[in-house]
Design goal:
With 194 residues, this protein is of the alpha+beta class. The chain has one domain: 2-Layer Sandwich (Beta-Lactamase), CATH 3.30.450. Helices cover 62% and strands 16% of the residues. It contains five helices and four strands; from the N terminus they run H-H-H-E-E-H-E-E-H. A four-stranded antiparallel β-sheet has the order 2-1-4-3. Strand 1 (100-107) and strand 2 form a beta hairpin. It starts with a helix and ends with a helix.
Length: 194
């Protein structure tokens, strides 16, 4: 209640000032504020659209990479004719040479025959950005068989840290370029008005 009274008394005090002392905002200042607000809104909207579109593209690339790698690994595993040692060696080599968060081979009965996981990779992307714009690395799955006999299914999940790095870099560059264009537009407007 006291805050409302303070605001009301402040408004009344300003209204009681002589006409020449009352604060005014010229039409040109109002136009500049409107232009500034519009440019800021356009900047934020453009960066948001760019970030979301880039995230969608990166998620699609991760999904396709996971799917392709799972299919290729399943084909290579199928050529091992069920030899567990060769299959384990092949999956370990794939895991060590790739950029994977997880590779898993489940038997046809549902048991886990092989599983290797890696910790999340370090990245320079701020944590708040990763929480604000999460990137999902959809797992790729493929069936492994020995001729007509099903051996199981392989699951491949790539790390998303490189995608976060690309998204962060793209977002910063987009914001920077749009800010430069906005400032140039404001300077051009100032030049035209004067």
């Amino acid at each position: 209640m006291k805050v409302v009274e303070v605001v009301q008394s402040s408004v009344l005090a300003v209204q009681r000032l002589p006409v020449g002392l009352q604060p005014k905002m010229s039409l040109i200042r109002q136009i500049w504020l409107l232009l500034l607000g519009t440019l800021l809104l356009a900047l934020v909207g453009s960066v948001a659209v760019n970030v979301l579109a880039t995230r969608q593209t990166l998620q699609t690339q991760l999904r396709l990479k996971n799917s392709d790698n799972a299919q290729a690994l399943a084909l290579a595993l199928s050529q091992q004719h069920g030899d567990r040692e060769l299959m384990t060696l092949l999956m370990s080599a794939q895991f060590d040479t790739g950029y994977y968060r997880e590779i898993k081979l489940a038997s046809a009965e549902g048991g886990v025959l092989f599983e290797q996981r890696a910790n999340d990779q370090a990245t320079d992307v701020p944590g708040w950005f990763m929480r604000l714009v999460p990137i999902e690395s959809a797992p790729g799955r493929a069936q492994v068989s020995d001729g007509w006999r099903p051996l199981g299914a392989v699951t491949v999940v790539s790390h998303a840290s490189y995608a976060y790095d690309d998204l962060w870099r793209s977002s910063v560059e987009s914001a920077l370029w749009l800010t430069i264009v906005g400032l140039l537009g404001a300077l051009l407007g100032l030049f035209v008005v004067r």
